[in-house]
Design goal:
The protein has 166 residues and is an all-alpha fold. The protein has helices at residues 3-6, 22-25, 27-41, 46-60, 63-75, 80-85, 98-112, 120-129, 132-155. Helix 3 (27-41) runs antiparallel to helix 9, helix 4 runs parallel beside helix 7 (98-112) and helix 7 (98-112) crosses helix 9.
């Protein structure tokens, strides 16, 4: 019996219940978030955007967003290997481009805000590889996914049911 065969769907723990359906209860907020996400995303290449969304969602422990953005990335042609390695990118830098590393570092700095600001060194690295307009959109995209993560985590959105292009 293989590992996959020994753990069937019936062996899994049941899904938790969401706390509330914020999308249904605050549709104007959700629509505004979608508009913001769309506007921010226009200036960021899809591959990079997917990595940013996945990395922020990993940091914020948003299982719903991890499910969604990993599936979106795979559907867009991203490799499972790069998605898996993203949590350990410092040890797996060779999987990513210099631009991707700069975006990942910036994502971490904006997401965590450890000392209350984004360090100049990290910002400078990103500014060196992105044009100003791209950088503005990248920061907007990072900010937007962080907001979505907070909705997902605080309302306990349930991962596993998202399907790309649905």
């Amino acid at each position: 019996m293989t590992t996959n065969e020994s753990h069937t769907q019936t062996d899994r723990l049941p899904e938790h219940s969401p706390r509330l359906d914020w999308i249904k209860l605050a549709p104007d907020v959700y629509k505004a978030m979608i508009r913001l996400d769309t506007a921010a995303s226009r200036g960021v290449e899809e591959t990079l955007l997917n990595l940013v969304k996945i990395r922020a969602s990993q940091i914020n422990h948003c299982a719903f967003c991890l499910d969604m953005h990993s599936k979106d990335a795979l559907a867009a042609g991203e490799s499972a290997e790069r998605i898996i390695q993203l949590a350990a990118w410092r040890e797996s830098r060779h999987y990513y481009t210099a631009r991707e590393i700069a975006a990942i570092e910036l994502t971490e700095a904006v997401t965590v805000l450890g000392d209350g600001y984004v360090p100049d060194e990290i910002y400078s690295k990103a500014a060196a590889v992105f044009e100003e307009t791209e950088l503005a959109h990248l920061i907007a995209a990072i900010t937007t996914i962080n907001a979505f993560n907070r909705f997902g985590v605080s309302t306990r959105m349930i991962p596993g049911h998202y399907s790309p292009n649905a």
